[in-house]
Amino acid sequence: MFGQANVLAAGQAEFPPSVEDFYLPSILPWGAHDSYWVTKFTLMIWIAVGVLIIFFLATYRNPKLVPTKKQWFAESIYGFVRNNISVDMIGHQGVRFAPYFTTLFCFVLVTNAFAIIPLFQISPNSHIAFPAILAVISYVLFNYIGIRHHGFGKYFKHALIPPAPWYILPLLIPIEAFSTFIIRPFSLAVRLFANMFAGHMLLLVFTLGGFAMLNANAWLAPVSVVSWVMTVALTLLEALVIVLQAYVFTVLSASYIQGALAEEH
Amino acid sequence: MFILAAEGGESGHNPIIPIGQEIVVGTIAFAVLCFVLMKFVFPRMEQTFQARVDAIEGGIKRAEAAQAEANQLLEQYRAQLAEARTDAAKIRDDARADAEGIRQDILAKAREESDRVIQAGKDQLAAERATIVRELRAEVGTIAVDLASKIVGESLADEARRKGTVDRFLSGLESTGAR
Known about the structure:
The complex is a heterodimer of chains A (265) and B (179). Chain A is built from 8 helices and no strands. With 265 residues, chain A is mainly α. Chain A has one domain. Residues 1-10 of chain A have low confidence and may be disordered. Chain B is built from 4 helices and no strands. The longest helix of chain B is centred in the middle third of the chain and has 133 residues, at 20-152.
C-alpha cells in the first residue's frame, strides 16, 4: 500500500500501465527494487492469514449449541464449503476434505479481496507465486489421494487409460497424461493469477487513462469522468470475479480429488 | 515474454515466473493458516454440528425412553394390582374355608360330647337297673319262699337253700318278660 501510494503521489505512474506496475518497491529495506522478503505482497499475505486466524479463533473460541451471530457466520462459511463443495463434489467422503477446502477458499477469497479494498487495491494473487503454491498443493493432494486409494499402478492406469477402443488409445493416453498431470496444476494457477492480474490491469487502465486524458487536454475532462465511472463499475465486476475465482479454485480442486477417488471414468 | 519484459522497463519482470521469496513466504503463511484452522477451528465445528445432531436426536430418544419407562411402570402397577386382587380373593377363600372347618370341628366336638353324655347316662341307668334287679332278685326269692312257707305251712327253708329253683324261675320270668 505504501509503495503504491508513493508511486501515485510522486506522479510516477505512467500511461499505459505496464507489468512493472505489479512490482512495487519493497517495504524493508524501503524502496529497494530487488528485495522481495518484505513487500506489499508478502505483507498482504500475512495480513490475510492473521485476519483469518483471528476471525476464526475469536468466533470459535467458545462454541455454543445455539450459535451467536458471529459463530453462525463462521459456521455458515464452513458449512457452505463442506456441503456445497466437498459433499456435493466428492460425496460423503468429502467431509474429511472440508477443513482443507474451507481454508483454501477463505485464503483465496481474502487475498483476492485485497484487489478492491481501498489502500491495498491489488491482490497478492496477481503474482503467480501464490496461486502456484495453492495449485501445487492441490496437485500433490489429488495424486497422493488417488495413489493411496487405488494403489500406484492402478491409479495411473485408471487416470491414463480411458474406456475407449484400443486403436484410439495411442491418441488418448498422451492427451490424458498431458491434461491430467501437466495442464491441471498449470491451468489452476494461471486461471487465478490471470484473473487477478487482468482485473488490476483493467482498473489501472481506466484510472490512469482518466488522468492521462485530463493531462493531455482539459476538454477531455468529461471523458475522464466516464473513465472513472467505468473504474467504479469494473470494481463491482472485480468483486464478482473475486468470489467466483475463489469458488472455482476450490471446486476444481474438489473435482480433481473426486476424479482421483472415482471408481470409473 | 521478452516483449513484455522489454515494455516493462529497465529491471524487466516476467509475470509468469514466480518470485522465490514469495513462494517461501506464501508457503509458510499458508501452512500456518492451514495448521491453525484445520487443527483448532474446523474439527470443533464438526463437533458442534455433531453435538447439535445429538442434542436433537438425544431429546427424541430421551422422550422415547421416558415413555417406555412410564409404560413399563403402568404394566407393573397393573400386575401388582391384579396380584393384590388375587391375594385378597385367596385370603377370603381361606377365611371361609377356615370358618367352615372350625364350625365342623365345633359341631363334631359337640356331637361327641352329647354322645358321651348320653352313653354315660345309659351306662349309669344300666348299672342301676342291674343293681335293682340283683336286689329285687334276692328279695323276691326271700319273699316268695316266705310266702310259700306260709301258704304251705311248712318250712321250705331247706328247699329254698336250693336256690337254683328260684333263680331258674326268675330267669324264666325274665325271658318271657323280655319276649
